[in-house]
Specification:
The chain is an alpha/beta fold. It is built from 16 helices and 26 strands.
Length: 494
């Protein structure tokens, strides 16, 4: 298990790296994260929903993704409420306070497995009493019967001692799996000695024994400057430092955490096709723009600035977990009107998933699926009406664009009165398909409309799938260079 001193320390990336390393070394690995909180999700081949990070890790491992890799997914719909997705299917919404105040499980015993002891939840929208610990442990057991080794990922910090007796994903899961735990610390944010030492010191004696080593992540500068620090950390913490991994910028792995959005480009650039992704409060599946972002013809940036939206060449309304709430905010902050004006001026407007719904004539929620807003007029750029429904569509799809076969996936609440997978009118395209902009025919069509020079375009001879394979191999090579892989195998053997 890769556990962390905090969020965004690099657990997901390291888990993906080791999924690829174990695959390269002849093993049959699979990723696992008991509970994930994210708006970036993915549809499995069976048409079920999991966190995007585990789908990426499964790709790195060379296997199809499955709900057993992420049995419990929380998708925030407000500051206090999340949709609960269990084994790939939404089962209702839950208030965060009610979720975490569920009946505590007993402290870990010396006798081992505590799979029966999970807090249960009973509340509005969940329908029945559910033993989430039993569910996530059963998913792990099914996965462990098929794959070896299981590359587990923790969540946030393992030192949140106020949540210890309700933990599903960190040390309680490590105990169930009898996992060797590698603690990941982020040196780039500062305070790495305190965060690593404190994370270990705050564990129970039983859990402390599971922590077999430390990886320091996101190092910048001359590695020799940390030689003394490495020994000092080992002396203080009592476990080996297994590696110090430098920060990298030339390896592209799809990111799940919304924290990564803070690092994205936010400004117009001269001499390129400026693509403005409208920054929604509940933005989801922002990995939809990774391919376009690395095209040398493009400057892709995120904004809710009215002037920048109108200056952009292409405007994209992305997916959202709360279509009506974000549509209301777009009207309040002037972005809706800016998008309409830009469209009248001949700018291309694209809507994906929730953004597609917003581009229609009306979005209705008569049953309060999303919240208290019952109905809002859309931006009226596409001739569709959308009604929110309790059922969620999750599936992988193949579609035709400009006569060429393309791939993507759908994850959305709501039904629109059209059977078109892609709806196109003058200067406007709408689709429910995530991954729409990963397809070369789509990108080339959009950018050719802007008169870009073909010789500058991204090399499409390398498909996006091949590109990702290349990046997983680069990531594995990077980690192999700076982590003691032999020591990792020694830890796993004993």
């Amino acid at each position: 298990m890769f556990a962390g001193t905090g969020s965004d320390v690099g657990k997901s990336i390291l888990a993906a790296a080791f999924c690829r390393i174990f695959k390269q070394d002849g093993y049959h690995p699979a990723p696992f994260k008991a509970q994930n909180m994210a708006l970036n999700s993915y549809a499995t081949p069976e048409g079920l929903e999991i966190g995007r990070a585990q789908a990426v890790q499964a790709e790195a491992a060379g296997i199809p993704c499955h709900t057993d890799m992420n049995p419990l997914l929380l998708k925030p719909s407000s500051d206090h409420t999340s949709q609960v997705v269990l084994n790939g299917k939404p089962i209702g919404n839950k208030d965060a306070y009610d979720y975490w105040r569920a009946s505590p499980c007993p402290p870990p015993s010396r006798g081992g497995n505590q799979a029966h002891a999970l807090p249960s939840l009973l509340g509005e929208g969940l329908g029945e009493r559910l033993d989430f610990r039993a569910e996530v442990c059963a998913a792990f057991d099914r996965l462990a019967a098929k794959y070896h080794p299981i590359v587990m990922e923790g969540a946030g910090s393992i030192a949140e001692i106020n949540l210890r007796n309700r933990d599903l994903v960190n040390m309680s899961m490590a105990r169930h799996a009898k996992a060797d735990v590698i603690l990941v610390g982020d040196i780039d944010r500062g305070g790495v000695f305190a965060s690593v030492y404190g994370s270990i010191a705050l564990q129970t004696p039983e859990d402390r024994k599971l922590i077999k080593g430390v990886i320091i992540n996101k190092f910048r500068g001359d590695m020799r400057l940390f030689d003394e620090g490495r020994k000092m950390m080992e002396d203080v913490c009592g476990v080996p430092v297994l590696g110090v991994v430098p920060y990298f910028k030339d390896i592209y792995i799809e990111e799940e955490d919304s924290v990564s959005l803070e690092k994205k480009q936010r400004e117009i650039a001269e001499g390129k096709v400026n693509v403005a992704v409208v920054l929604l409060r509940h933005i989801s599946n922002f990995t939809d723009f990774d391919t376009l972002e690395r095209d040398p013809r493009v400057n892709l940036f995120y904004t809710n600035n009215v002037a920048d939206i109108q200056r952009a060449d292409i405007i994209v309304l992305p997916g959202t977990k709360a279509t009506l709430d974000d549509l209301l905010e777009l009207r309040r902050n002037g972005c809706a009107q800016a998008i309409q004006r830009a469209h009248r001026d001949g700018k291309m407007v694209i809507g994906i998933c929730g953004g597609y719904q917003m581009l229609g004539q009306m979005v209705s929620d008569p049953d309060g699926i999303e919240g208290t807003v019952a109905c809002l007029p859309g931006l009226d750029l596409l001739p569709i009406h959308t009604t929110m429904t309790p059922e969620k569509t999750t599936r992988q799809v193949t579609f035709l664009f400009e006569g060429q076969s393309c791939q993507g996936y759908e994850i959305h609440q709501g039904v629109s009165d059209t059977d078109q997978s892609v709806m196109q009118t003058d200067h406007c395209i709408g689709t429910y398909i995530h991954g729409f902009l990963d397809n070369a025919p789509v990108i080339d069509y959009l950018l050719s409309e802007k008169g870009t020079v073909n010789s500058e375009k991204l090399d499409t001879a390398l498909s996006y799938a091949d590109f990702k394979e290349e990046q997983y191999d680069k990531l594995a090579a990077h980690v192999r260079q700076y982590v003691d892989i032999d020591k990792i195998y020694e830890i796993l053997r004993y």
